[in-house]
Structure formats: C-alpha cells, structure tokens
Amino acid sequence: MRGAGRSLVIAICIVMMILAGQASTSYQQTPAPSFTLKDLNGVQFSLTDFKGKIVLLDFFATWCQPCKEEVPHLKALTKIYPNSTLVLVSVSLDAPFVDDSVVRAFVKETGIAWTVARDTDSVQYKYQVFEIPTLILVDQEGNIRSRYIGVTDSETLRSRIEVIIPEFQIPTMVTASALAAVAILIRRRQ
User: Fold this and answer.
1) Given a cut of 90, is residue 51 above it in pLDDT?
2) pTM (2 decimals)?
3) Residue 36: in which H helix or E strand, if any?
4) Domain contains 4
5) SS3 category, 134
6) 26: closest CA among 141, 135, 131, 150?
7) Do 61 and 132 touch, CB atoms closer than 8 A?
8) Domain CATH for 59
C-alpha cells in the first residue's frame, strides 16, 4: 500500500474510533446506587450482577392498589424482552414487621414471575423513593435513565427501553463499519 493510501486508512480508523468513543459516552447519566438484597427464596443478588442488561426496578408494597395495577404492565414487558435484555426486580417496601408470607401471597396472587426482594439494604432511600409504585430504569452500564411515579403503562416503558437498546449497539456498528471501510480500501489498493 502506498503512503497516501495508508494515511487515508489511518485517518478513517482514527475518525471511527473517535465516533465510537463519543457514541459510548454520549448517554452517560447518574450512576445507579449499588445494593445487595436476597430474593424471597433467599438467593442473594446485587445490581452489578445485571451489568450489560437493562434493569427495571419496581418499588411496591402489598397494600398498595396502584402497585397491583402496575403488575400487568410489567408482565407485558416480560413477554416482549427476554431476560438477557431486560431484568425486572420488584422491591417490597412493606414494613419489617410484615411477614414474608404476606409478600409471597401478593406475588402468587398477581402472578409475578420475576425477582422479588424485601428492602433490607435501604434501597428505597438510596434511590429516593417516597411514593409507590415507583419504577426506575437502569441501563446496561448501570446508569439511571428514567424514573416513573405511579402506574406506568407498558408502552411508555417500552418506548424508553427501545431508545436505550440501540445506544449500546452503536460502538459495535461503528467498529464494524470502520473494519469494512479498511477492507475495501485495502482491496482497492491491491
């Protein structure tokens, strides 16, 4: 490859890397506070366990009628997105004296089939949740992207999730485009 051709390839690669860097940092938001909880089966998990996936935190209480009305909207999301893309975690804000059996009964009655935990790590305060239901959407990098207070329909949530998913595919697309451009230039020069 001649000097001018090599310079062009290098320039294209540099531009693509800069674009990839900008794409991967343009959406940074407030980091989601870390926490560790045990689900109702006693299995410990942390928010960091879900890095690379979108996490929807659902803060609820068993006595909260709007929280019960929220469940069908959350169920609709589980039918659209696989667990490898979207993880739902419901955090019960029921008082400590409320027995786990009450929370389990709520889960059974509403048909919740995702992770449910009691708030034993002050998650409510870390996320400044003072009304329920509150939903908090955390992106694949662990940043808070949205907060919804009150019953939020699945279409509203879906529209926000659909915006987040492609943002994390941009660096991959830019890299693939850069490699394709380099391959074309090399073929042309040979």
Assistant:
1) yes
2) 0.75
3) strand 36-38
4) no
5) strand
6) 141
7) yes
8) 3.40.30.10
Region 14-41: mean pLDDT is 69
Residue 113 resides in a domain: yes
**Three-point CA angle 27, 29, 30, nearest 5°:** 170
Domain of 119 in residue numbering reads as: 30-166
The lowest-confidence range among 10-14, 83-87, 119-123, 131-135 is 10-14
Residue 171 reports pLDDT greater than 50: no
Mean pLDDT of 66-88: 96
Kindly report the number of other CB atoms within 10 A of residue 136's CB atom.
Answer: 22
In a domain, residue 153? The reply is yes
Counting the structural domains of the chain, the total is 1
Strand partners, 103: none
Residues in the chain: 190
Tokens describing residue 163: 């915006």
CB count, 10 Å around CB of 1?
13
The answer to whether residue 174 is domain-embedded is: no
Q: What is the mean pLDDT of residues 98-104?
A: 96
Q: Which residues make Cβ contacts (< 8 Å) with residue 9, sequence separation at least 6? A: 1, 182, 185, 186
Identify the three-state secondary structure at position 61. Answer: coil
